[in-house]
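Per reviewer request, we include the raw input and output of the structure prediction for the construct analysed in the revised manuscript.
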Amino acid sequence: MSFNVLAQGLSSDSFVRCPPEALQFDRRLGEIVAELTRYSADVICLQEVDMFEQMKEKLSDYKGLWVPKPTSPCLMSDDNIGPDGSAIFYKPSTVQLLAHHSEVIEVDGKATGQVLLAAHLKLSTGIKLLVVCVHLKAKSPHSQLREKQGRAILKYIETNSGECDTVIVAGDLNSDPSEPVHTLLESSGFICSYSSAVGCRSEYTTCKIRMVDGVETLQKKTEDYIYYRNLKKKNQFSVARVLQIPNETSLGEGRLPNMDYPSDHLSMVTDFAIP
C-alpha cells in the first residue's frame, strides 16, 4: 500500500470546497488510520507524514520507520505540528525487518528537499524485499529534476539490492505517466502494478479544487504509483489485483479531501501473488 496522507500542516492549503470540519486533526487522524487498516496490508509506504507518533500509537499491529524532509514546507505554517516526511509501516507478524536506511536525495552533488526511505524486509516465506518509499519534487516545471531524482533512486537500488528477490518503489512521484522519470523506471525493468492489473494507468490519484488566481480550479492528476521489479528468476512477484480508483463523481462536488476521504490523494493498494 502507498498513500500520500496529506500533512496536517498543509491541510489548509486552499481546498476551497472542503468542509472545515473534515480537516480537523483528530478526525483526519482517525480516518487515515481507518484507511491504513482497511486492507490489512503487510507493508505500507506513506508520504507527507507529520503525525507519525500518533499514527504509530494507533497502528498497534505494525511497526514503523519515519524520516523527515530536511526543508519541510509544514514548518512555514505558524500552527504546524512538526516537519512532514516519509514512513514505512510493516506487520512484524508477517514481515521481518532486516535493515533500514534513509537519506536526502542528491542531484548533481547537491541535496534536494526530498528523502528516500528504504527497508530491507524478509517475508515469512523467506523471500527478501527492498522497499523504497519516495516523494519526488512537486510542480510541473521540475520534470527534469524528478528524472534526476529517479536516477539517484536507481543508483541506490543498484548498490543496495544485494540478495533481494524483489524491489518495490512506492510513493508520490508528482508526475504523470508521460514524464521521463517513468520511462527511466520502466527501461530499468520496473513494472507499474496498477497498469499491470488493469491494462492502463489510473485515471487520477489526486483530484481537488483549489483557488488559482482567484478562480476555483480542478486539479486532477495521476501522481501516485507502486512499481516493482523481480531480480531473480525464482520467487517472482506478480500482481494478483489492485484497488481500483473510484469514479470521479463518487467523490462528490467538492472532490478531495472531504468527510469520507481524509487526503487530497487516494491510496494505492496492490495485492501481490507470491510463490
